[in-house]
Design goal:
There is one protein chain. This protein has no helices and three strands. With 70 residues, the protein is mostly beta strands. The chain has a domain of 39 residues: Rubrerythrin, domain 2 (Single Sheet).
Length: 70
């Protein structure tokens, strides 16, 4: 389930919500004032590095320039 950042248009509170795929938009509300007048904000995300010992592309020197396999 993704975590989304929201901003309440009523009180200005910024908060995060863990949102399931079946949640209706009407169910989402501000944690501080209870208003349903919220907008989803752009938020950061993280990309993890695989623990695999090989690259996703060919490494002609035999060593991975991205540090995979170390």
């Amino acid at each position: 389930m993704p975590i989304y950042s929201y901003l309440c248009k009523n009180c200005g509170e910024k908060f995060d919500l863990l949102v399931g795929v079946t949640v209706e938009k009407e169910e989402l509300k501000c944690k501080k004032c209870g208003s349903k007048k919220i907008t989803r904000q752009i938020s950061g995300f993280s990309v993890g590095k695989s623990s695999s010992s090989s690259c996703d592309f060919s490494c002609p020197t035999g060593t991975c320039p991205l540090g995979y396999g170390r």
